[in-house]
User: Which sequence fits this backbone?
């Protein structure tokens, strides 16, 4: 597998990895997607599902629009095949670091709230705290590690998992995690209290009060219980994120219907909404979309939305 190949110090490894990537892109997207174009509309039509994921996030199938690759340059090029009609543009509006912002809001950690309210790059802020260095002196490698810590802890990552992800010893990873909690004690308090409350109640809630049940939270099987405990921390973040973007979708669709402006909401990809709209109105409508997404729910920190415009989906990023 990929992990085993990476351990081999041989020039063929990179070629094998590149071949596998290109083969996957070709078979999954370049060959498969054109066969699913609707003959009447000339478009691809996905199906969205409300009740597949436990956290309430939408899922997508036939075809799955939520797994179009973005992490590699080759993969991201697939998105350039999603184009606007003549005289139209594609607008992509993406919530920035929404799960970390939800963590700041729910935990009420003062340092995390301060970073977001002062529009400080939160990964750099975490790196500055964990590595005990001035914000202006944070290196790219330190920021990369801090980013892994920020997102990893939301998903219940252990010192072992973090060590593996950022290629350090388990002892060093444990020191990073301890340093994180020393500087963000509100996050640790939230995690501990959430686990205890979940054990008592058997569920956790999103910020809109939607319950996410955890039947294995008191299981005698430690593996099942540990998974449930990790879910207890992550589910309120992912679930609240799902609540927020769905509410934004309703708000925006109401605006579209009320104004009869020809804007079409064509995709939802986790924290991103994608629209097709008149090119000459793209900037104006883009600011309205940004404002509606930012204001859909008032938190103790701002909801930031990145908006991009282009002739295709990739160009809009």
Assistant:
């Amino acid at each position: 597998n990929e992990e085993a190949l990476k351990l081999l110090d041989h020039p063929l490894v990179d070629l094998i990895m590149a071949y596998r990537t290109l083969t996957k892109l070709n078979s999954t997207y370049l060959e498969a997607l054109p066969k699913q174009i609707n003959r009447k509309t000339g478009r691809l039509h996905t199906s969205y599902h409300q009740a597949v994921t436990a956290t309430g996030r939408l899922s997508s199938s036939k075809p799955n629009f939520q797994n179009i690759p973005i992490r590699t340059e080759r993969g991201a090029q697939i998105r350039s095949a999603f184009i606007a009609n003549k005289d139209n543009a594609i607008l992509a509006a993406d919530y920035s670091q929404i799960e970390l912002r939800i963590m700041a809001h729910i935990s009420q950690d003062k340092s995390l709230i301060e970073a977001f309210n002062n529009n400080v790059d939160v990964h750099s802020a975490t790196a500055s705290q964990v590595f005990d260095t001035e914000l202006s002196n944070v290196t790219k490698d330190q920021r990369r590690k801090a980013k892994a810590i920020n997102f990893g802890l939301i998903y219940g990552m252990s010192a072992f998992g973090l060590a593996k992800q950022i290629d350090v010893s388990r002892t060093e990873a444990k020191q990073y995690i301890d340093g994180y909690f020393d500087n963000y004690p509100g996050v640790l308090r939230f995690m501990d209290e959430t686990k205890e409350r979940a054990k008592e109640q058997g569920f956790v809630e999103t910020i809109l009060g939607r319950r996410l049940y955890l039947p294995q939270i008191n299981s005698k099987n430690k593996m099942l219980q540990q998974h449930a405990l990790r879910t207890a921390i992550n589910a309120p973040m992912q679930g609240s994120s799902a609540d927020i973007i769905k509410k934004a979708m309703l708000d925006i669709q109401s605006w579209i219907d009320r104004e009869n402006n020809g804007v079409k909401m064509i995709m939802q990809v986790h924290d991103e909404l994608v629209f097709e709209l008149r090119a000459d109105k793209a900037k104006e409508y883009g600011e309205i979309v940004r404002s509606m997404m930012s204001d859909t729910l008032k938190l103790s920190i701002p909801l930031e939305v990145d908006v991009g415009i282009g002739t295709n989906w990739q160009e809009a990023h």
Residues 110-183 form one domain.
